[in-house]
Amino acid sequence: MVYTFGGPRVSSITIQVAATLVANLGILNTGMMIGFPSVLLPPLLKVGPGLHISFDQATWLSSISFISAPVGCVVAGPMIDRVGRRRGLVLLNLTFIAGWLPSAVFPLSLPALYVGRICSGIGAGAAPSACSIYTAEVAAVYLRTALVLITPLMLSVGAVITYLWAMLYQESWSEVSWFGLSVTSMSLVLTLLLPESPMWLLNRGHAEKALQALQRLRGASGPEQVKEELDSFSSRASDKQQKTSWLSNFKHLRKPQVDFTNRAGIQGEAHYVAMCIAIVRMVSILIFTWVSNVFGSRNPAVFFGVIMTASMTMLTVNVSGLLVLPQWLIGALVLVYVYAGSTSFTNIMLSMLGEVFPTEVRGFASGITTGLGFTTSFVATKLYPIFVTEFEAYFVFLFFTIFGAAGTLYIYFFLPETHGKTLLEIEDHFKGVQTTGTKL
Questions:
Q1: Does residue 199 contact residue 211 with C-beta atoms inside 8 Å?
Q2: Are 27 and 158 in contact (CB under 8 A)?
Q3: What is the pLDDT of residues 211-228, one digit of tens each?
Q4: First vs last C-alpha separation in the chain
Q5: Which of 175, 208, 360, 364 could make an S-S bridge to 77, C-beta 3.0–4.6 Å?
Q6: ∠129-130-136 over CA atoms, to 5°?
Q7: How distant, in Å, are the alpha carbons of 74, 236, 407 from that of 373?
């Protein structure tokens, strides 16, 4: 026997980790898409032979993916609810292939670069919903807190890969595109080997297929080894099938970072600054994975939200001229701000995306949520240069400080604790149903 409901064995853990890593290769592509302008834009803005673009065209190449991303968010949600979680991941990989192919085959064509960035943006918009929902639904309760954090981790790893490439190899965006295309093709092949989400299958009335999928995911040699877990899914699936439609349940429901550091008072080569920020984000996820397994998600999120707001307050005071801080302290405050902000907001959002919505609207609601996030990213990317030009940097930093404090207060008052809870218990919490012995 390799699995028991009360006592997981190594084989079960290995299978779930492997399935999660394969499913989240789409998020790796998203991180590479966000970091791709750092490889693409510098050579295109230089004077010399080859393709060159204006500053305005460069800003559109950088931000156009954030325009198309909400399209992917809105489409991906209903799509994965309808066709299934695994098929949704397959379609996600095909979208990223369409994104990398134009810039790999036609690297000196500006229209091809635009098309590639638009397709990559659609894939990036679809990835958070597709990857996080599959992860949350296939992971056992004892592993879910750790596994859902693989999603933001892969996002940071993808960004680090492109920033590292930009730092070591200049003017090589076609090679990055071929690398991204290779990763996506490998992801497509591996995704075809994944089992479908048992919860989605049960919700569609495919009990036998759900049993087989759960056995594969838990490394079980017989149905009796997963019977208790499957029964907990089945009882809720029966209730869902009595509903008329998902709509009746709806009520239950990168960026200009281098300029930012310069405005804060740090002077450094752009690639190194971007690389340091990306590494700090990745480290924050690794540490938060351990912290959340020990202390849960909610309390660390509040704590790091306070740290983020405090560090931004110090940077704001420094920018205002009221207090002059040394370079090393400014650098430390920026890294603390990035680390704490990534922990309290980015990691929490991506890790809980597949947990907090009901099964029948999980794809749709997650798509709307990520769509709002990408829309905000586009607005921030386009407006930041205007704001720092039209207004003093002090007011921009003060704006960040105020919204950081407001976001931390929102987490404190409204974010539930999901660590150690089943998806059904989390759903009951938002419906106002108190499960015996369970408090979120």
A1: no
A2: yes
A3: 888 888 888 877 777 777
A4: 33
A5: 364
A6: 80
A7: 12, 30, 14
